[in-house]
């Protein structure tokens, strides 16, 4: 049987493991994928029709490649840093693009994003002014601990927690080295606060709050960015978020001009206030789309591929069916993070294909792979992400704890390589004011206003 996009060519920017699933989905749709990235060994290239070592930041090189191959569409993979390139390449080739330069300016640079959010009443993390000159008068105003990070990179890359002034210079240098535009920011380090994700989907100007969830991060790696350990859906703070932030966010999206695509906001919750700290206008490595596919029956990877090739996300995408309470289901992602070392043995996933609670288990690393020191403190240290959907909160709690208990990873000397998981009981205990069951009409009014 002829597939719908048989023979169509799609240039995908970036080749990290999270992008591999996007390539495989395109293959299943009959698409010929050309994966372009600066590393010859990138995982997504294993599944591509053709692979190119042109770097994702090399816009002229990408445009030349696209013209040479006569591609029918361009799509960015799971990499924030490549969204500006994606926009420029599509614009040069007059191909469908869900981003505009205005959108790129806001969502690809943390400092611009933060300023834009504030203008719509969406608060960012309190910040301290500092530039590369590190003037003593500016340094003296900083209250520690702080997070130093590049404005235009993600996944924990280039980020450092600084606890005293003597550590500041090295942190600034690290952030600058990871910033293509040589810009960084210094923010209050948000200790003892709750982490959240707000995941929005857009189709032809229509905005859906697809899911709002609580995230949990590791505190085992002192001085490093707090890498995610997983998330539970829906958020305990759903009602507060929908009342206090959602409408401001939707107004911002509309006025910036977002019409199609996927957008993630990351934020903290503290004493009734929300502080947004990061964003990503592309498919997420965290992959909430896998949970949405299980519950609502549409694949956001197919949606983005279809848009890249036709300029339309397709009839299978019905955002009116979505509500941020996950249609009464309870879901989770569980990340397994590794310490430095070489993976010799992994246990605990042997019968996972027979577990109906498991939606997916997305592997990044395998036996024989090595985790170097420079991967510690960012998402490269993720072994795998496990996706669960259950009918009750109790069933979800049991499932998460079961896998956190039985999954083991050892290095060549038999040492444990796994970091501790998150506290399941604390994660799934409702906060005061959280109402897990609301009438569908009320949810629809909130989400689709």
Describe the structure.
Helix 2 (59-69) packs across helix 3 (83-93). This protein has helices at 17-28, 59-69, 83-93, 101-107, 110-119, 136-139, 168-177, 238-244, 246-256, 288-296, 300-310, 393-406, 424-427, 440-448; strands spanning 9-13, 32-36, 50-52, 73-76, 127-128, 146-150, 160-162, 184-188, 194-203, 206-217, 228-233, 261-270, 273-280, 330-337, 341-347, 358-363, 370-371, 382-390, 408-411. The chain has 14 helices and 19 strands. With 449 residues, the protein is an alpha+beta fold. It is globular and about 55 Å long. The longest helix has 14 residues, at 393-406. Helices cover 29% and strands 25% of the residues.
Quick structural overview:
By secondary structure, this protein is an alpha+beta fold.
Kindly report how far apart the N and C termini lie.
42 Å
Helix count, DSSP H or I runs of 4 or more residues:
14
Give unreliable regions as ranges.
Answer: 432-449
- Tell me, rounded to a whole number, the average pLDDT: 91
Strand content is 25-35%
Task: Please summarize the sheet with the most strands.
Answer: 8 strands, antiparallel
Q: In order across it, which strands form the biggest sheet?
A: 13-12-9-10-11-14-18-16
Which structural class do you get from the secondary structure elements? alpha+beta
Shape: globular
Q: State the helical fraction.
A: 25-40%
Cα-based radius of gyration, to the nearest Å: 21 Å
Could you give the count of β-strands?
Answer: 19
